Amino acid sequence: MLSYDIKQADSDSLYHFIYKCIKKDILSGALPADEKLPSKRPFATQLGVSVITVENAYAQLLTEGFIYTKPRMGFFVSAIDTSKVPGTNAGLNNIASQKQSREAQKSAPDTSGLEARKAPKKYLADFINNQANPESFPFSTWAKITRKVLCENQNELLVRSPYGGTLAVRKSIAKLLREFRNMNVDPDQIIMGAGTEYLYGLIVQLLGFDKKYGVEDPGYSNISKIYRKMNVVCNFIPMDESGVIVDQLEETCTDVIHISPSHHFPTGIVTPVSRRYELLSWASKSSNRFIVEDDYDSEFRMVGSPIPAMKNIDVMDKVIYINTFSKTLTSSARFSYMVLPKPLAKKFHDEFSFYACTISTMEQLTLSRFIDEGSFEKHINRMRNAYRSRRDALLQAISKSKLGKLVEIHEENAGLHFIMEVQTALTDEEFCKRAEEKGVRIGALSDYYTEATPSEHQFIINYSGLSEKTLGMALNVLYQVAQSNKVAN
Amino acid sequence: MLSYDIKQADSDSLYHFIYKCIKKDILSGALPADEKLPSKRPFATQLGVSVITVENAYAQLLTEGFIYTKPRMGFFVSAIDTSKVPGTNAGLNNIASQKQSREAQKSAPDTSGLEARKAPKKYLADFINNQANPESFPFSTWAKITRKVLCENQNELLVRSPYGGTLAVRKSIAKLLREFRNMNVDPDQIIMGAGTEYLYGLIVQLLGFDKKYGVEDPGYSNISKIYRKMNVVCNFIPMDESGVIVDQLEETCTDVIHISPSHHFPTGIVTPVSRRYELLSWASKSSNRFIVEDDYDSEFRMVGSPIPAMKNIDVMDKVIYINTFSKTLTSSARFSYMVLPKPLAKKFHDEFSFYACTISTMEQLTLSRFIDEGSFEKHINRMRNAYRSRRDALLQAISKSKLGKLVEIHEENAGLHFIMEVQTALTDEEFCKRAEEKGVRIGALSDYYTEATPSEHQFIINYSGLSEKTLGMALNVLYQVAQSNKVAN
């Protein structure tokens, strides 16, 4: 009969100890296939445990398939062939080594994780970082509304929201669009998602993997990356001073063009109304053609009224409008949405409504109240003023600095970045590299070109997360770098 | 010179009113292309507004491309060709009709939205609903931790988390897996995502659109839907009493098999260890082959220890383990994660780290604290006990009812559902239809088959969201339906 030393069970429960011993013997081959296991009662007596303990151990082995039962005959060892799995030494060594490494882990200092190894670098100025300033997030209001939602909306909170988001938050967004963007959309046209990246993926599923997608060149590189990761053709469409060139859409057989007509990143171009109509005319020529209007930072136009959305003149149902709260609230919350033309909204409803919405109901309800109670409007006005002051201070600091004489500023009235053209003998790469060595992180417009011929000496100045303390020093660094000799340094 | 009646500006700002009037005239053709606009000063005098008001109106028109400027000559109307966009009547009518419908909307009662039209039906019993009972969610603890996070983690809260989730929450999950599933994983192997559906999409991107995917038949239909929406081949693999049939994987040339070996939905099958090794052996034969282990409800095994995960014996790095907090917490929060084998984790890091994590940092940090402070373990133990009592009460109620004599119960020890086999002359479809007419919602096992031959007269009993009040009546309904004649009703 099998014999195990119950005293070794240690902190383990008795049934689990017996289960593990038998399992080990089965995996090691000590208990061969079809061997009968001892009857419960004598085995229990021998081990000095109760019959129920043995029963529980056998039941677990049975459930996991290590043993099988024959009616009125007892329990037998199953045939388990681990030999065909290379690297498996009867499973057992694996378990043992797991245990060892588990113990090793317990004693070792816990410094695992990619991030733990990467300490964030401190810069005099970081003109690449475009994350909102943490201080600007309306913490106390958000916390207050979160508490209210947790208290007052308990029943709604635990209901999974419909695929596009709860009706409450879609109504709030429709209201925002009406007030801020003069857009008249039905809440049913709105699909919320945890980030615009996720929505790009949904768009591919909705419009088709067989379509050819196009992105702006230059442009935000993640957009083309995502289309390519979704396994669709993605063309780079060159731009002139009005936006993407429509002839190039025809030439590349693009079906779906992804653009940001209200404020292009990184050039800052606003697509004029004539080009907008040209694009709509292009789209109207085939039922396969659509325009994705990525309106990522229209809330932050610094001068004049917001630029109207293309969606406003979309009488042919060709424009999918996308926006996000990443810039206006915080990118650490994942609030994005798209507005589908009605026929596409119907298609989405018919074919994709089995998908769960990717934003938690709690955060949806919090956002909805934040908008409905007027906090969003207040916040956005405060932010716009704060960014405008920051931009003005930065522009003034540049013009007063020595650097001022070497630069020209373009497209400074929209969004949270502008372009600074610098007189320098250095290549863009060399300029950015030397600046970074001296503590100033800056990116060149030319980095954002893929196939089109880039403009040189134009640098992107993001100022949403900029600190003003070390700004003077940073501008001086850029001046020295711009003046520096090609070979020197 | 142009003439507009400034008194009509109403609540609009003056500059915006002038801007709109000119825009309207341009779009209607009243102001033809290349027409010179009046000089600012005399125009301002004529309208009775300040020069700056006219300047602002012109600036907005310029930015949007309705007019252009010639140095020292003034402003001219742009050529805007709207005629090629079918349905566009110079854009203007569109704006007017938008305004009308906006006003109509203001006065109409706001009953838009798909959901508003669908009132949820009340049932005596709903055996299809598998959402957790709202009362079971630990509201006060969750609210307390949320408040703490909002107070104490403000700086972390506004940093967008790395692609896989913040290190804190990945460490918490690694700890859970160690304690509950005896799994030893590095936090870097964990990728968090807003729902398992989203993770399935990521898996396709990671393993390839050219691979052939396989799902269990019968099975949860959304899984195959998602693979097909991702535009990949998805085979239905028939099952025997141990799980998917390995020969069928070979025959269908499946590369990636998606299974739930610890508790299959809907049959309840636990894949025995011998079949697990067979599957691993199958996977080891090609570098393209992988197993997706969907461990959706292993926390709720009612009797005995949890079934070990296949990931535990995955020495060849072939198993992608997926789990979710939808069942254990609430499906209205979107917390899911996958554990990648180390080589795939490296590939993910190299190729997909540009993706933002789809769960907000706030919810990640709340979940992390909820786990670390021991609340998750307490909650899961309480839930398991509650579900066990509910299951026991239900089983007892069935056996005591008249229905008891007509049924046999299968697979009642795991997860939050079991199978009830019913003696009846009705087809499954007829049975479910008649039950629903009498207020009992129930689904048949045969509904979950796609290509394989289904077992008849087996019904799925989900009890996680069941109310006990009307249970007796519901069982009586099922008894009557089971006894009812084929033609009668």
Which pair of chains has the greatest number of interface residues, and how are they split between the two chains?
A-B, 114 and 114 residues
Shape descriptor of chain A reads elongated
Distance, first to last CA of chain A: 82 Å
The SS-based structural class of chain A is alpha/beta
Q: What is the strand content of chain A?
A: 5-15%
Explain how this protein is built.
Two copies of one chain form a homodimer. Chain A is α/β, with parallel strands linked by helices. In chain A, 41% of the residues lie in helices and 14% in strands. An eight-stranded mixed sheet of chain A has the order 4-11-10-9-8-5-6-7. The longest helix of chain A has 26 residues. Chain A starts with 13 loop residues before the first helix and ends in a 6-residue tail after the last helix. About 6% of the residues of chain A have low confidence. Chains A and B meet through α3, α4, α5, α6 and α7 of A and α3, α4, α5, α6 and α7 of B.
